[in-house]
Amino acid sequence: EAGVAQSPRYKIIEKRQSVAFWCNPISGHATLYWYQQILGQGPKLLIQFQNNGVVDDSQLPKDRFSAERLKGVDSTLKIQPAKLEDSAVYLCASSLGGGYQPQHFGDGTRLSIL
Amino acid sequence: LAKTTQPISMDSYEGQEVNITCSHNNIATNDYITWYQQFPSQGPRFIIQGYKTKVTNEVASLFIPADRKSSTLSLPRVSLSDTAVYYCLVRTNAGKSTFGDGTTLTVKP
Fold first, then answer.
1. Residues A17, A28: contact at Cβ < 8 Å?
2. For the segment B33-76, what is each residue's pLDDT rounded down to a tens digit?
3. Contact, A91 vs B87, CB < 8 A?
4. Contact B95 A41 (CB under 8 A)
């Protein structure tokens, strides 16, 4: 089965610019997650969707980050405006459902802010 | 969410068995324990998950004592390609979990 697809793989922008990341989950997976992984740390959950509804966005900096999952399939994560501390890898994951279903991760987008 | 504690790093040699222990003192009754592996420039990859006693698959075993306050991931006969970061997570039935900073395993020839 095809894995979680993310694009772009790398992105370099200047601070205060905007950026968007795209994720296509594994077909049939209802739950989609976005994580932020800063170098040397474990992934931190930003937002969790169940189909096209938000389940948990408690750690999403909503003044600058937004995410949507239209039609309950692919998803975009946007940062506007970017700050230096947003430099990180942004990982998307999907699972068949919530609960105990294992998450399948994409290889992420590495974002560098100049 | 139960917090997990793992060693920051471990070293091993090829062919040895490696055991990585994770403590999760505040695990709730319905929580599961899940382990992921992450290589550089890749996303985490699911290894194994369990609730109690012992779970085994083709790559690892997971040992969970009766009090469930800790768990041990066992990797038999490691090779250089097992060098990676290993994360222990506690997952709730709502699908919530928190990654810690993981254990960096270095396998030497």
1. no
2. 999 999 999 999 999 999 999 999 999 999 999 999 999 999 99
3. no
4. no
